[in-house]
C-alpha cells in the first residue's frame, strides 16, 4: 500500500493512466476488496494500523483544538516580528490620529469658550446700551421729582434745565411723565402746553431719574438752581428718594438707513 | 475495520482528554498530521487496489510523519521554515488529491 502511496505521489498522472481499463467490473472488485478489508481480523499488522490511525485522529483533534484556541504563543519568530511591526505601525498611526483629534477638540473647546465670552460681553454691552438709549426698562436707586405748577409758569426751558442738571449729576436713565428721555429727546412749548418728543405733558410734571440720589438731589437744590427757579416762578418741586426707582417707558430706535458701523482699527 | 475504529477512538480521546500540545512539538504537529493524512489516503487507495500491506502502511505512515517534521525542522534552522512548511503542505495536498481521485474511480467508477 505504501508502495501505492509512494508511486502515486511520484506520478499523480499514473493513476489516471491506469484508470481507463477499469469499468464497472473494476468498481465491483474494488468494493469487494473494501468489504473484505473492513472485516475485522485481529492480525498484528491490522492492530498496528489501527493504533496509528488512533494516533492520527488524536493528533488531528489536538491540533484543531490547539489552532482554535491558540493566540500568538505558537507563532514563529519571524511571524511574531512581522506582527509586532504591523502593530507598531498601527499604533503610531493611531497615535497620530489621536493627536490630530485631540488638537481639533482643543480648538473646538477653546473656540466655544471664546464664543461664549464674546456672547456674554455682547449681552452685557447690550444691556448697558439698552439703558442708555432707552430701549430697555431700568430700575435702581434714584429720585422722584414732582413739579406742581398752579400758575402754568413752568416752561420747556425750565424742564430742559432740570433734565440737564440731572444729567450733569450723573443720571443714567430719566423719564419725564410717560416719556423716556434720551439723547435725542426734545422739549418744546406747544400750543396746549409743554411737549416732550411730541407728547404733551400735563402738570404736575413727574420726573424720575436713576442715578446717585444724593448727588442729584443736591444738584437740584443748589442756590440759583432748578428748585429756586421753580420757587420764583410760583411752582413747587418735591424731591423724594424711593429705594427703587423704576423707569419703564421705552423709546424705539429707528434703524440707521445710511450709517453703518465703521470697521474697528486693529492696533 | 480496526483502523477505522482506531481513528474514531483517537478522535474521541482527543475530545475527551483535551490535551495541550507541548511547545517543542507545536511547529511540527500540523505538518505531521497532514503527512499522516496523506499516508492514510494512500493506504486506503492501496486497499482498493488490492495491494494493501500492513507493514508497508506502518512504515510509510511513520516515515511520512518523520520526514515532514524533519523538513520543517530543517526549514526552521535555515530560516525558511514557513516557506518550506507551505511547500510540504502543497506537495502533500497534491498527493492527497491524487489518491482521493484514485479512490473515487475505484468506488464510483468515475
Plain-language structure description:
The complex is a heterodimer of chains A (267) and B (110). With 267 residues, chain A is of the alpha+beta class. Chain A has 8 helices and 10 strands. In chain A, the strands form 3 sheets. A 5-stranded antiparallel β-sheet of chain A has the order 4-3-8-2-9. In chain A, β3 (173-176) and β4 form a beta hairpin. In chain A, 24% of the residues are buried. Chain B has one domain. Chain B has helices at residues 2-17, 29-49, 54-78, 81-108. In chain B, α2 (29-49) packs antiparallel against α3 (54-78), α2 (29-49) packs parallel to α4 and α3 (54-78) packs antiparallel against α4. Chains A and B meet through α1, α2, α3 and α4 of A and α1, α2, α3 and α4 of B.
CATH class of the largest domain in chain A: Alpha Beta
* Shape by Cα distribution of chain A: rod-shaped
Catalogue the unreliable spans of chain B.
Answer: none
Number of domains of chain A: 3
The radius of gyration of chain B is 16 Å
Total DSSP E strands of chain B? 0
